Every structure is written in C-alpha cells, then in structure tokens.
Amino acid sequence: MITRYLGPADARIRWGIAAFFILFAAAVPPLAGLYGQLNPDISSRFEIYLATSAMILALWAISYNLMLGYAGMVSFAHAAYFGIGAYTVGLLFQRYHLPVLEGLLLTPIAGALVGLATGLVALRAVRLYFSLLTLAISQLLFTIAFNWVAVTGGDNGVHGITIPDQLSDYTPLYYFVAGVVGLCLIVMFVITRSPFGAALAAIRENRERARSIGINVKMYELAVYTLASTFAAIAGGLFAVFQQEAYPEMLYWTQNAQPVVVALLGGTGSFLGPAIGAFIYTVLQNTLSKNYANQFDIILGAIVLVVVLIVPGGFASLPQFLTNLRNRFRREEEPARIESTGEAMREADLARVVQVQAVQAADTPVERGEPLLVIQDLSKSFGGLRAVQNVDLTVHAGDRHAIIGPNGAGKSTLFNLISGRLKPDSGKVLFGGRDITGKPPHLIAKAGIGRAFQITMIFPKLTVLQNLQYAMLAHRGYTTRPFGFANRMFRAEAMELIEAVGLGRYAALPAGQLGHGDQRAIELAISLALGSRLVLLDEPTAGMSQYETQKAMELVRQVAAEKGLTLLFCEHDMEVVFGTARTVTVMYLGRVLTQGTPEEIRRNPEVRKIYLGELEEIA
Ligand code: ADP
Ligand code: MG
User: Fold this and answer.
1) Which atom, in ligand 1's list, is nearest to the CA of 413?
2) Do residue 245 and residue 350 come from a single domain?
3) Are residues 218 and 352 in the same domain?
4) Nearest CA to ligand 1 atom 13
C-alpha cells in the first residue's frame, strides 16, 4: 500500500524498477542460454519456458489487481475469463481454422462481452455478496465448458492447436508473449493513472464519499470488471498459444487462487507488484515441485500467510519494509505520525482572516435570491419512527441557511433525503426547478449539491491533495477518461484550497494520518472543492476545538462568498449558527417548528424551551 504515496525521489526508484524489469525481460533468453552452457544438466529451453509462463501469469494477476488493488473488489471468477480467452483461440482454430494470432486478437472482445454480461449480474450485489455471485458465475461458466460437449469438447477440451512456424521455438515465442504482455501492461498502467483510475481509488477508499462527489459507483465497478476480464482473456489466449491447448479445469473456481496468491505475494498496492509475485510464484513452484511436489500447496500457503502478516504490502513493498525496520533498529524516530490537530489551522495565514472579515462585512445585508432548493411535504419513516414528517423548506440562492434542533430531530435524515442517500416515502425535492426526488447520490452531486457528512468521510489512504483533486475530477466529469495523469490535474486549484484550510504542509500525506480536526477540514474542503451551487454541511465543526471551529467557519463563509455558494447546514454550536446563518429553521421531532432570522429565533420562546429541554410533544 505504501507505494501509492511515494514522493518524487521514490518515483524515480519506481521508474528504475520498471526499467530493470524491461531489461531483465529482454535478457531472459540470452541469460538462460548462458546459464545452460555453464550447467550442462540444465535445459535453457526450460528456463525460457518458465519465464514465458511467468509472463502470462503476471498479465493475468495484474488484470486481477485492477479489481483487487485499485477498486477493492474480490472476484472468484477471474479464472473463467482466462479460460474463455484460451477457448476463444482454441475453438476458433479447431472449428474454423482461424490462425491463432487472429484468434488472439478476438480474445479481448470475447473477454469483454462475457465480462460485461456476467459483471452486470455479479454487481447487483456488493462486497461479500458480490464475491459470492462471482463464485456462482465461475461455476456456471465451468459447467458450460465441461458439459457442453458439442461446442467445447467437454472434459477433453481443445488440443493440438498449431502455431505459426516462426513461433514454434521457445525464444521467439517468449519474445512474442513478452511483447503482448508488455503492451497490455502499458495500457493498464495508463488506465490506473488516469482520472478513471482515480475514481476507482476513490471507490476503494470510501464508496459513500465517492458517490457524494458524483461517481456512479456501480458503473465504474462494472467498467473495471469488464476491463479486468478483457485482459484476463488476453492472458488466457496467450496461454492457449503457448501451451497449444485449452481445457475446462482452467475455469474451475479453485484456479482463482492463483491470481489472488500472486497479487498478494507481490503486493496489491503497486502496479508491478503482481508481476514480481508471478515471478516468485513461478520460481517457487518450480523449485518446490522438484522435491516437495506433494507439499507445494501447504508450503505456498505458509509463505502467503507470512507475507500477508509480516509484509502486508507484499514483495513490492520490501524495500520500504526494510527501511522501516532499519530505522527502528537504529532507534531512529519513525516518520512521525502526524498529530496535526489545530496546529495547522492556527498557522493559517492571518492576512486571509482579515480578508475574510472584510468579505463578511460586505455581504452581511440579507440579499436572498431565487428559491434554489424547494422541499415540499417531505416524509421519511424508519419502521414506526417518523424521522422526517411533512417538512416544507425553501432555501434561497446565496443564503446561509441553518437547521437547528436537538439530537434526533431529523436533521441528518433530511440532509440524506436531499442528497439522495435516503429515498423519501413521500414528498418532493426540487433543485433549481428540477425534480431530484429519490435520484441516486451521484446524480444529485452532479446536479450541483455537494455535502460534508456528520461523520468524517474522506479517502484515508489518498493524500490530502488527491482527496481534493479527485473530488474535482469526479465532480467535473473527468473520471470517465481512461488516459491522462490524474495526479497532475487540478493540482493548483486543489492546492489553493488546501492552503486556505491551513493544511498546505500536509498536502502530500495520506489524509487518514491527520488529526481529527484536520480531517474535518478536509471533509469541508472536499464539499467546497466540488464547486456545487448548494453545499450541505452536517455539523461541519463536530469534534473541532473552539479555535478550529472559528477558523473553519470563517473559511466556509469566505468560500461561500467567493464562489457564490448557497449553504444549508446544521450545527450544534449556537455560536456557529448565529455567527454564520442568515436564515434559521428549527426542527423538532421530525417537523419544522419555526423559521426566521437568527435574531427572531434567538428570541422565540418555543425554541428557548426546546433548548432547555422543557418542551414536550409538538403535535
Ligand atoms: P439529527 O441529525 O437531527 O440528530 P437524525 O436525522 O440523525 O437526527 O435522526 C432522526 C431520528 O431517526 C432519530 O430518532 C434516529 O434514531 C432515527 N434514525 C436516523 N437514521 C436512522 C436509520 N438509518 N434507521 C433507523 N432510524 C434512524
Ligand atoms: Mg445528525
């Protein structure tokens, strides 16, 4: 996991590793030849043969890692798409005498089609249930391959696939496979670094947050599932060319252990991790199977266990792991866990604060625009509990509108109804004149409603900068792009916002490492980064110190004024409410009790009673 937030110097190391890979891959046949000459009892052809199979395994495992490492999806059907690739080449050759290289060109199409169709089924569920569905799909596809004798040849599979003479020797075949694998890796690499890849990372880190920045989670999952199937089918096609056969066991569900083990061994957190894993796996399998053929599985299991427990980042993270170990050994301070609470805010630029206050003074007169958000007779019950009852509410453009009310009044539920996280039982939500009632969260986010959650919802393993960049990418519709370098997009804009919340120094740190107050600031910044017209803030300063609260609200007011945002927020802290809001709505037991200017609300006797806890049922 560590490799994801390497700095520029480490990036050079990474390119060095990639260059080494390429050189090593190119040098395998001559090296094997040399090795063979020095050791007459070793066949250099066999070494090349092993390297070829490691290449194919690497492609298969990296395609698997598109799902596992980049999107956090655990599939048990990946072997099926590998098998489908092999069958595509095999059957087209056997039945239609299609040369294998042309068959190979069709494997991505076969993989994509079957991947898309089955992915649509598997992605009707999430997490564990998604995994179980892939298992079922895997068994289904295996059964088809095994039992549909007329088409697939049944348990015999397809044999005797002939390949062009030019490829019949080990070395040319190796270079051919290496070339195809290399090409696929380049394409996959570009995809993982693209805005599309950024959306996957966002989904992996926090599905809910991903939705609220405008990502259609299911669509992206389906897309990556299909992509992974596509590349798995190419790997399977290469296997058929290499082994000149395809057989039903390739699709059997236990085969999925291979890409999983390889990805875990190598490391799911880096692009080339699974390639390293494939190499190690092949070497292990080969050396162990000579002497301990029967114990191979158990030894492999033990190795995976050790790797996962001790070096969870896999072999790819070994350098980092060793550095950390050495540091600990030398009793050097580990890179200090950042205790940033408050500190950053305190150092926020004073000039900015002055500027903020000027803005505040300038926009104090109440100038309410058109109705932007109109809520009509909205209700939501949880079982018998009527959390929101017949609420009518109008938020005007440019307003800073607070909703107050004791715990359980239904404020968060109301926000969830507006943002699409919950669907109302009845009533309407209109935004800018459009009916958005019951629309999914990503569409509502796209329509221009951003939000900060009551519980901090950020992307913990992404850097502070990436948190904001990705939010901007998603909200502005860039994340459908499978090319371009996501980390270089919206950098300046994101950085500006980070500086404004006083987190400039932490921009390159994983957001999850910051203190609570600073995470709240990121949460806020994300909602402001979206450039939405309306921003919903659910207790934006919950858990912040008084000083942080003050600063955060200044920021909110400033950004709102600069960008012409409309704010709808709920807040516990009455100082915040009366210092920021221009309109206040009071909720109690799911209903709107009253509405007015802060001054009116402050004087309202009913409101005073609620806050003293004296008021009973309001019928
Ligand atoms: P507030 O944000 O004003 O404190 P909420 O909207 O969180 O209030 O909650 C309103 C009422 O609805 C509370 O009684 C709460 O227990 C209940 N509630 C909120 N969410 C759920 C849920 N998902 N399932 C069941 N009850 C819920
Ligand atoms: Mg709440």
Assistant:
1) 6
2) no
3) no
4) 408
Query: How many A from CA of 338 to the centre of ligand 1?
Result: 34
The answer on pLDDT for 354 being more than 60 is: no
Distance CA 244, CA 583 (A): 74
Atom number of ligand 1 nearest to Cα 416: 6
| Contact between residue 271 and residue 14 where contact means Cβ atoms under 8 Å apart | no
Residue 264 CA neighbour count, 13 Å, CB half: 19
Is the full-model pTM beyond 0.85? yes
What separation in Å is there between the alpha carbon of 63 and the centre of ligand 2? 41
| Cα angle: 475, vertex 479, 481; to 5 degrees | 145
Q: Is 243 helix (H, G, I), strand (E, B) or coil?
A: helix
Classified as helix, coil or strand, 272 is coil
Q: Which two tokens stand for residue 368?
A: 């309410």
Of 382, 403, 421, 538, the residue with max ligand 1 atoms within 8 A of its CB, to mutate for a pocket test, comes to 382
Last residue of a domain, one of 210, 231, 251: 251
598 and 468 inside one domain: yes
Confirm or reject: Cβ of 408 under 6 Å from ligand 1: yes
Q: Are residues 380 and 245 part of one domain? A: no
Looking at the structure, tell me whether residues 200 and 67 fall in a common domain.
Answer: yes
Residue 414 CA to ligand 2 center (angstroms) comes to 9
Count structural domains, the chain: 2
Residues 358, 241 within the same domain = no
Q: Residue 283 is encoded by which pair of tokens?
A: 């070497």
Task: Say which residue the tokens 């993989």 belong to.
Answer: 111
| 238: in domain | yes
Pairing of strands 449-452, 534-538: parallel
Tell how far the Cα of 411 is from the centroid of ligand 1, in angstroms.
8
Q: What is the Å distance from ligand 2's center to 493 Cα?
A: 31
CATH number reported for the structural domain that contains residue 598 in this entry: 3.40.50.300
- 336 within domain boundaries: no
Mean of the per-residue pLDDT values of the chain? 88
Residues 377 and 510 reside in one and the same domain: yes
**372 and 232 within one domain:** no
Ligand minimally distant from the alpha carbon of residue 540? 2
Point out the ligand 1 atom lying closest to the alpha carbon of residue 383.
25
**Token duo for residue 581:** 């809001």
Per-residue pLDDT of 439-485, as tens digits, reads 999 999 999 999 999 899 999 999 999 999 999 999 999 999 999 99
Q: Tell which of 236, 251, 266 closes a domain.
A: 251
Residue 365 counted as domain residue: yes
245 within a domain of the structure (yes/no): yes
Residue range(s) defining the domain that contains residue 443: 345-612
**How much is the pLDDT for 367?**
58
CA 204 to ligand 2 centroid distance, Å? 26
Segment 290-320, tens digit of pLDDT: 888 888 888 888 988 998 898 888 888 887 8
Per-residue burial over 342-371, b = 16 or more CB atoms within 10 Å of its CB, e = otherwise: bbbbeebeeebeeebeebeeeeeeeebeee
Dump pLDDT digits (tens) for 148-185.
Answer: 999 999 999 999 999 999 998 999 999 999 999 999 99
Beta bridge partner(s), residue 592: 587
Q: Is the CB of 423 under 6 A from ligand 1?
A: no
